[in-house]
Design brief:
Chain lengths: ~160, ~160
DNA sequence: GCAGATACTTTGTGTAGTCAAACTATCTTG
DNA sequence: CAAGATAGTTTGACTACACAAAGTATCTGC
């Protein structure tokens, strides 16, 4: 690719990113409220996001994923375990290692959290359908995270409040 | 608009959002590293983002924007002031009121921060130019935040708060 | 001119999140 | 088996925030 084209591409990318990032920033409050409603700290949410109900994850793997100290991982998992969202099992192969999984209750909270975070901000609906389609199709080509496919957005309804 | 069309639009929006949000989440680490490199906490960055060199902002206005207690705003501004990034002036009209502005050094750090945060993640450049253009054009129609352009909202109105 | 409202700061307390260092239990290797 | 590596936890200390309550200075309405 010619330098000319590359630099134009960089400029387009920069402008696209700036606008997207800007939009994301303006909707941060909505996401904060989601966490508040589910009574989760940002750390809780991240922890929840790294676990699942089927395959246990080792503490070390979690610490590596979160780029934190092993003792911090202990602390993060403890928080969820205390609330009945996660539990530690022992590996049959190596009794030193713990395998952390979500409880059914934890999985339910995880699903609620994802549904709420994946619900598009109302401002997004002010766009024309054509623009949304363009947005979706371009975004589809972005590298995506490790999250499993989402369930229907109707899951957001009727979230019970704890107290 | 027909219900049919509305629901399709919602579905497209949901998918677009999910993908964008997902991408943003996967690039969070890069932004964390930006803050680390500039030796700023998230709170510092937010504070820096709300100030400018020209028009001073009152503590009360900042607390309202940040949705925090007045004493928290004091604490946040203190942090920047201690590092020479911000300074407090007195309003000529009301001696109770402090007007917070950025110092030249603070403005420089603010510019660096924005430049770094607005730099598109490398993964974005893996898209075709056509997709980037589509992304940019669609994103341009999103409501934008106050950052690139000077803030229009005059804050003369006083909001009565209940406590 | 004074009673109350307003703007901000100080002080105290609590939670979230982070690491380092010491410790336990278990596995691996010479 | 003994020595060391590895997985995880505990304990202690520290930072970043957040709010409440009390305190200071100033302004405004009657």
């Amino acid at each position: 690719m010619a330098d000319r084209a590359r630099s134009r591409k960089a400029a387009v990318a920069a402008e696209a990113w700036r606008r997207i990032f800007d939009f994301i920033a303006t909707t941060a409050d909505q996401r904060d409220r989601v966490l508040e409603r589910l009574d989760l700290t940002p750390g809780d949410a991240r922890t929840l996001g790294s676990l699942n109900q089927d395959e246990g994850r080792t503490m070390r793997a979690l610490a590596r994923e979160w780029r934190c100290d092993a003792s911090t991982a202990t602390w993060l998992v403890d928080r969820l375990e205390r609330r009945g969202f996660a539990k530690r099992g022992s590996s049959p192969e190596d009794r030193r290692v713990k395998l952390v999984t979500l409880t059914p209750r934890g999985a339910k909270t995880q699903a609620r959290l994802r549904a709420a975070l994946f619900a598009p901000p109302p401002e997004l609906l002010s766009l024309e359908v054509a623009d949304l389609v363009a947005l979706r199709d371009a975004a589809a080509k972005l590298p995506s995270g490790p999250w499993p496919a989402p369930r229907a957005a109707a899951e957001l309804q009727r979230v019970k409040r704890r107290s």
